[in-house]
Design a protein that fits this description.
Chain lengths: 148, 148
DNA sequence: TGATTAGTGGACCTTTCTATCCACTATTAT
DNA sequence: ATAATAGTGGATAGAAAGGTCCACTAATCA
C-alpha cells in the first residue's frame, strides 16, 4: 500500500504542528502534546529522541523541561521533517526495485517517477510548520467566532 | 519510509511488463516470468491469484496453460495495475491520519496533498504496460545493435 | 539532601508485510 | 486410465514496522 511516510513521521508532523501553533516560548512537553493531538506517547517519544539526536529538537530535562525546535517553525518545511525522520534518501529508491536503476541504466519507470517525485517534493518543500500551525489555528478561531 | 506501492505490486508491474514485451499469443507462465525478471515465484503467484480473482488476468490450467491479460497491454495503465493490486483507495487515506479528514473537515495538509496526489496519479495514468514493455525492448535492441 | 519532574535507552511484545511449502484440483497428452 | 503440467488455497515461517514498559539519568525546587 501507498505510504508517503511512516507512522512515526506522521506523529512527528502532527506533534510539531501543534507545538508550533502554541503561543509562548515554544517549549513543549512530550506527554502534553501527545495527549493533545491524540497519538501514542511511548512511541512518539522515540521519534522525539531521534529528532533530538539529529539536531532537530533540543531536549531540556527536569521540571519545566521539554523540547524546543532548534529552528523557528517558518523555517522548517514538511520535507525537512520527513527527511529528518525517514532519512535523506526516502524518495531515492527505484520504484521497480531495480538495483542498477540510475542515470546510466534507468528502469522503465525511471523518467516517469522522477517527474512525479519532483512535483511531489516541490509541494512538500513549499509548506512550513508555521503554515500548518496557522491553518489549524485559523480553523479553531473560525469555529469560536461562529459559536460552534 | 516512503512506498509508492507494496512489494507484491512491484513484482506485478515487473512481471506484467515482461509478459507484455513477449511476442506471441500473450500467454505467460508464472514460473517462467518470475525466473526471467528475478522475483520470488511463490509470493508473486499469490499476486497473480489476486489479479485473477479481480478479473485482471485469466488463468488457464494444465499443460501449456498460464495466464492471459484480459485487456491488451496498451489499454492497461500503471494506475490500473496499482489499484488492482492495492485496492481502489490506496491514495485516498489522509496523510496526517485524521479520521475526519475530508471536504468538510480538511486536515492542515489536505489541499497540499490533494494537489501532489493529482499530479502523481496523472503520471501513473499516463503510461501503459505497452509503454514500459516498449522501453525495455528498445533498450535491448539498442544493446544488440551496438554489440554490447 | 531528598522528592519530584521530564527526557533516555534498552528490552520486549504485537501486528502487518513478505515469503515459502505442500497437498490439491483442473487440464492435456499418451 | 495414468502421468505430467500448471494454477489454487491454506498453513506457516521470517522480517520489519508499530507500540509498550521500566529502570535510569539529569535538572529543579523545597
Amino acid at each position: 500500500m501507498f505510504k508517503l511516510y511512516s507512522k512515526g513521521c506522521e506523529y512527528a508532523l502532527r506533534a510539531l504542528t501543534y507545538a508550533a501553533s502554541q503561543s509562548g516560548n515554544g517549549r513543549f512537553q512530550a506527554r502534553d502534546v501527545c495527549e493533545k493531538v491524540d497519538i501514542p506517547e511511548s512511541f512518539t517519544r522515540k521519534v522525539f529522541q531521534a529528532l533530538t539526536q539529529g539536531g532537530f529538537l533540543q531536549a531540556v530535562r527536569g521540571p519545566g523541561g521539554g523540547y524546543e525546535l532548534t529552528r523557528s517553525p517558518e523555517q522548517i518545511t514538511l520535507l525537512d521533517v520527513i527527511e529528518a525522520v525517514e532519512g535523506q534518501d526516502t524518495f531515492e529508491h527505484c520504484v521497480l526495485g531495480f538495483p542498477e536503476c540510475g542515470g546510466k541504466h534507468p528502469c522503465p519507470l525511471h523518467e516517469t517517477w522522477s517527474k512525479a517525485k519532483k512535483q511531489l517534493m516541490a509541494q512538500l518543500e513549499h509548506r512550513t510548520l508555521q503554515d500548518l500551525a496557522d491553518s489549524t489555528t485559523r480553523k479553531k478561531r473560525r469555529a469560536f467566532v461562529s459559536g460552534a
